[in-house]
Structures are given as structure tokens and as C-alpha cells.
Design a protein that fits this description.
2 copies of one chain form a homodimer. By secondary structure, the first copy, chain A, is α+β, with helices and mostly antiparallel strands. Chain A contains 5 helices and 10 strands; from the N terminus they run E-E-E-E-H-H-E-E-E-H-E-H-H-E-E. The interface between A and B is medium-sized, with 35 and 35 residues. Chain A binds a DNA duplex (27 and 27 nucleotides) through residues 161-163, 178-181, 183-185, 188, 200-208, 222, 225.
Chain lengths: 225, 225
DNA sequence: GCAAAAGTGTTTGGGATACACCCATGC
DNA sequence: GCATGGGTGTATCCCAAACACTTTTGC
């Protein structure tokens, strides 16, 4: 059966805000636009959503095409963010963007992708479209998410030290936390368990390595912070 | 300039979850479908989003057309919820739905709209499409929203009693709250102020009427509950 | 021995929870 | 005077916040 469609739909696009932490800085993966509009400016990886594919599938495809990143393989957490739809956001015509946010660590792109790079969220280049707004929105959501879920796991290796965990929080929240209170609180949440492995690195006392009990998103019993 | 569009976009639709509280029950406004698919079943008011109109504008239009409700006039709080996009959600073809949630009180529709009605969220009729999922998602989000924002104002008249306020919370959260603790906590948030007016009704002590300081959404200093 | 990060406890204040009775009114 | 909902206070417990020194290692 065919839709009796009285209206022409707008173009549908998807865009990805891909976060990772590098040198204790929260960074976003961007691509440099090769063509107009906004040629030479940086933008979120994104592209068209065709009929018959979900936005999540389209995202996977365009992030692979545009940035050489495999979403499912490289990002341990992906969620839909918001749908941006102001009529003038794309100068070529009305394009509705369903945006996603993803978090990973050491996100890799093929070397051929010379126009892919990762920038600190608090020091972004000039951005195309309304992408600066989208990133700001994503950052706010991410910070909130860390306070009431176990989402940090997405930024960390399988085994990690408590200092690394705390540093991840600090990078996302943008402020310092008290070491003793942080450890006490986090350990009391029961999300992680210690391993018998230590991390020894540099001229100082080795650090105990921990693991998450679950690497799927779950709500915290008491919200953090 | 014209898009060089390599893909045909899916159909874009908008759907509204309109909440109100009636007899201390959280209810949702639904319309009875007059045509296939899902003829005779109930559904969220919604419809096509044309190129050139924002989803918010399309929502306003279709909610007026389908349910005879004026969103801006009748609902004091509206927010975008989520975009549902599974390919099979509409049997006629791939339709991506940008959904919104709105809250109001005594939401009115014209008498001619015989196929519009309001149902308790915990006792819904058989619903078309994936609308049961959408309502469940909206309800969860609404409950969360009440705990960290002043969003309840949308369900209440300009002046209201503390018992009415508490009842609104209870209807949304689906559980009882302690009267003394509720009042102490809510008053300490500084969101409302008392007026010199009393509500006298029935054979019992009159109740002090209160007003919100702001009727725009704001975050609570300490989260509620 | 010294530089560097890991690790560790206690005190204090404030808010969450639990809980029961008197007040003002209409009839 | 009685039925109905409005209105009020206290004690306890847990958690958040503030805060500084010792431990283990590599060189």
C-alpha cells in the first residue's frame, strides 16, 4: 500500500557527536568539509538517511564513509540525542538532523582520512551549520549522564585505576573532585570490583586495577555528585 | 542551490503525547483512527511534517487538525521527546516520527472532535503503531522531569493549594508521598510563594493558595525525591 | 633520599525519612 | 458535634563535604 502523501518531506540527515578523552581532555571527532557549503570548516561526521534504513544504521554508514570510524566496534556507548530541525540550518534547503552521541577511547580512523581530527570541546575550531550548538547540547547531556549512570565505562579500558576513573570524570565535568570522597563514593556504588593486577608505571607506587561489573548502561542507585 | 540528493528520504511525521491530570489520574489525549491502517484503534495525535516547517510547527498544525487542540494556548509546557524510526513501525512504509510531550490542564478540544478522548496512562486502550512504547517513554521522562525541574506548574492552575501540588506529583510518580516531608521539601526549594488568598470548598478548613515564582522550566537546586 | 603518584579516616552539617495530632470549616 | 481535608514539629540516620599525611616505587 502506498502512502497518500500530501506533503514533500524535508531531507533527513544524521550527525554524530563522538567523544573521547585524550590527555585528560574531552575531545570531539570532526571532519573538515571538502565542499560547499561551509567548505574548509569543520563539522560533525554525518550524512543522508535514506528511506528503509534506521537513523542508527545510517549513522553507522556515514560515520564509516566520512570519518573511517566503525561505530559499533570503536564506541562502547551510543545514544540518540535530539533532532535539530530549524528550517534554515542548512543553506541548501530544509534538512532535519537526528543527532547521536557516542563515547569511546582511542577512537581510530584510517590514515587515509586526512580530514578527520579530534578537538578539545573547550577549544573547537569554527564549525559548520549549527554543529556548535549540537556539541554543546551533547556535552551537557554527557555530563548529566555521568552523574546518574555508569556511562564512564565507555571512556576507559577494561582495567583501569581509580585515578584514571577520576580523571575521566573530571575531564567531562570540567572541574576537580576530591580524591578521597570520590573513591569512597564510587566504591560504595558497587559498580566496579578490584582485580589482583597492579599498574606499575613511573617512579611511584603502583596502582590497583579495577574492572566494571557491567559494561552496559545502568542507572546508579544514588546519583553521583 | 539545490541539494544533490543521492537518497530518497523517509516520510517525516510528528506525534504528540499530551498529558493532563483529571481526577488525580495522569491522562493522555488520544484520537480514534478513522481509516486504515489501525482503523478504529486509538493513536497519538500526529501527522505529516512538510518541507519548510519545523517539527514544532507541524505539531501545532496537526494537533489542531486532528484533535482540535491549540498547543500553544492549551499547554504550558512542550518539549521534544525522541525520534522513533524503526522501518516497520508504519505498515504503509518507512515513516520517522519526531515525538513531543506536552503538559496542560483541562485541555480542551472542540465538541465536533468526537474522536478525541483522554485516557488514564495506566489504563490505555489498544493503541496503533508503536504508540504504546512512545507513551511509556514519555511517562518515564515526565516522572524524571518532575524530580529535577519545576515542570509540575504545567498541570496546575495559577493559584493552587499544597495538597493539589502534592496530588499532581503523586499522579505522575504513581506513588504516595508523605505530606509533611513534601511540604517542607517543596517550600524549601523556593519555587513558590504563598498568596493571601484561601481556597474554601467543602466542610473543612480552607487551604492557603500558592503561586509559582516562574512559569518557565527551570532546574531545581536540589533534586526532588 | 627525593620526586611522584597511590592510598587512606574522621569530623561536621544538612537533608531525607519516619511518624501523629490539632485546626478550621460546613452541615 | 462530627466529618473532612488543612496544617504542623521532632528525632534519627545517612550522606556530602572538607581536609593532610603516609606509602610505594624508580631513579
Amino acid at each position: 500500500m502506498k502512502y497518500t502523501q500530501p506533503y514533500t518531506p524535508p531531507t533527513l540527515v544524521v550527525d554524530a557527536v563522538i567523544f573521547q578523552i585524550v590527555n585528560n581532555q574531552l575531545q570531539v571527532v570532526l571532519i573538515e568539509r571538502a565542499a560547499d557549503p561551509f567548505k574548509g570548516m569543520w563539522a560533525l561526521p554525518g550524512g543522508y538517511n535514506a528511506v528503509g534504513e534506521t537513523t542508527r544504521d545510517a549513522l553507522q554508514r556515514v560515520v564509516q564513509e566520512k570519518a573511517g570510524i566503525n561505530l559499533s566496534a570503536d564506541l562502547s556507548y551510543v545514544e540518540q540525542l535530539y533532532t535539530f530541525d530549524t528550517v534554515a540550518r542548512d543553506p541548501r534547503g530544509h534538512a532535519v538532523s537526528v543527532t547521536y552521541m557516542g563515547c569511546g577511547r582511542n577512537v581510530e580512523w584510517s590514515k587515509s582520512e586526512a580530514h578527520t581530527a579530534s578537538f578539545p570541546v573547550d577549544n573547537l575550531p569554527k564549525l559548520a551549520y549549527d554543529h556548535a550548538d549540537i556539541i554543546q547540547y551533547a556535552h551537557k547531556r554527557l555530563a548529566a549522564k555521568l552523574t546518574y549512570t555508569n556511562a564512564v565505562y565507555a571512556f576507559l579500558p577494561k582495567r583501569f585505576t581509580l585515578s584514571e576513573l577520576q580523571a575521566a570524570y573530571q575531564s567531562v565535568l570540567g572541574r576537580e573532585l576530591d580524591k578521597r570522597n570520590f573513591r569512597k563514593k564510587f566504591l560504595s556504588l558497587g559498580l566496579i570490583h578490584e582485580t589482583d593486577e597492579m599498574k606499575r608505571e613511573g617512579a611511584h607506587r603502583p596502582a590497583r586495577l579495577y574492572e566494571f561489573n557491567a559494561t552496559e548502561l545502568e542507572a546508579l542507585s544514588r546519583s553521583f555528585d
